[in-house]
Design goal:
Arc Repressor Mutant, subunit A; two-stranded antiparallel sheet; globular
Length: 150
């Protein structure tokens, strides 16, 4: 592979804006993790649990891209500070699910709420047609981010 193949073509301003948005999101997660007194991987786990709801350790490990042994230690840390709780799976008592505690939910929401409100206001400032176009574009961006590179 030559050096030219490692370079990116000239990127659109909107692509640079998405890159800056992703970086700002990562910085927000870092600030939230400091606020909640956890590391960024633990914060990412809390965020996934908030977004997708209770899940088993294996699914959480897969979504985080870490080993199941590592996720066990992560869950232990979050449980010890009261951010998550383990419970029996509702349909298979041999399995365990992990969920954020109400206290962790309130702390995270208290921290992130101003940002969510500001993002919502930015969207409300757009016309319905513009919102539809932005939503379609962001759906494509999300698909690109969720697709594993080959």
């Amino acid at each position: 592979m030559g050096d030219d193949e490692l370079d990116l073509p000239p990127l659109l301003d909107i692509t640079i804006a998405v890159q800056r948005t992703v970086n700002a999101s990562n910085e927000l997660i870092a600030r939230a993790s400091r606020e909640l007194g956890v590391n960024t991987t633990d914060m990412a786990a809390l965020s996934l649990l908030e977004q997708y709801g209770p899940m088993g350790p294996a699914e959480l490990a897969n979504r985080l891209g870490i080993r199941t042994a590592s996720v066990t230690a992560l869950i232990d840390r979050l449980e010890s500070v009261g951010h998550v709780e383990r419970s029996s799976h509702p349909h298979d008592r041999r399995r365990v699910t992990v969920a954020p505690t109400p206290t962790a939910h309130r702390a995270a929401l208290n921290f992130i709420r101003p940002t969510i409100i500001a993002i919502d206001e930015a969207g409300r400032a757009l016309s319905p047609d513009a919102r539809r176009i932005v939503q379609q574009y962001l759906a494509g961006v999300l698909q690109a981010l969720e697709t594993r590179p080959q």
